[in-house]
Amino acid sequence: MSAVQSSSRGISIAGIQVTYGLGSAQAVQALAPVDLEVADGAFVSLVGPSGCGKSTLLKVLADLMPPTQGQVSINGLPPSALRQAGRIGLVFQQANLMPWLTIEKNVKLLKELVQAKSKSATDLPRVQNSQTAQSVEQLLEVVGLKGFEKKLPHQLSGGMQQRAALARALALDPSILLMDEPFAALDEITRDRMAFELMRIWQQYRKTVIFVTHSLAEAVFLSDQVVLMSARPGRIHKIYDIDLPRPRTEDTRLSDDFIRLVGEINRELYKVMLL
């Protein structure tokens, strides 16, 4: 089957609603209609009160759950086509590495599973690969794990395990990278270091990233846009364009503009929580 390409780049979210237990007395609306456009190669963070549907929206984008209503397209394709072709990268709070496999084999695992599936399924949609695909060895060097290829996960720190999880996602050469609080379980110093590493890697690969976090400073530091969601049922309350110059450095966090943006979003979040 020939590769599928589309002239429509980026993510388009139109009228997405999610209700858990639809039709039952215990039905809970997690997402009210959500409309959002994300440019190709953009880094966008989702912030908002706990339970506002940030992770639910990520699951819809990843084709891990269907929306109750609405549509999503990623580079002009439904999420299901990209997931079946192995072109959606996911990074969660926990690295979820296979403890019996070396770091090198962990990073290769998903890519090998997708390749094996594509060989056995003649109807699997083919999505055009980008020009950024790199070998596992190159990826491990990019994420700072060169020399740790033969180590087992328990021999690495939490931050290093998250680096391996990021390399595993990038090995798929994903069209989008979905990250659900990937640094939440790390100590503050490691978390800050990982934010710098993620920014450096994103600048190299320019993948479209949707990043869920509870840290407003982290969101502002990393993002092109910060999307503030309302309390459940989650809606897009406000979108902030982050026009801080790149590449961002430690001095960025000390700048008046950075402090102003974090404060502005924090004040608006406080209002949202009182609604």
Order the strands across the largest sheet as they lie in space. Answer: 5-6-7-3-8-9
Q: What is the CA-based Rg, rounded?
A: 19 Å
* Residue runs with pLDDT of under 50 for 5 or more positions: 1-7
The secondary structure category is alpha/beta
Give a description of the structure.
It is built from nine helices and nine strands. By secondary structure, it is of the alpha/beta class. The protein has a six-stranded mixed beta sheet with strand order 5-6-7-3-8-9, sandwiched between helices. Strands 2-1-4 form a three-stranded antiparallel beta sheet, with helices on one face. α4 packs across α5 and α7 packs across α9. The longest helix is centred in the C-terminal third of the chain and has 19 residues, at 256-274. Residues 1-7 have low confidence and may be disordered.
Keywords:
three-stranded antiparallel sheet; alpha/beta; 37% helix; 9 strands; 275 residues
Q: What would you say about this model in short?
A:
This protein is α/β, with parallel strands linked by helices and 275 residues long. It contains nine helices and nine strands.
Task: Draw up the topology in text.
Blueprint: E1 11-20, E2 28-38, E3 43-47, H1 54-61, E4 69-74, H2 79-84, E5 88-91, H3 103-120, H4 136-142, H5 158-170, E6 176-180, H6 188-205, E7 208-212, H7 216-222, E8 225-229, E9 236-241, H8 250-254, H9 256-274
Parallel strand pairs: 3-7, 3-8, 5-6, 6-7
Antiparallel strand pairs: 1-2, 1-4, 8-9
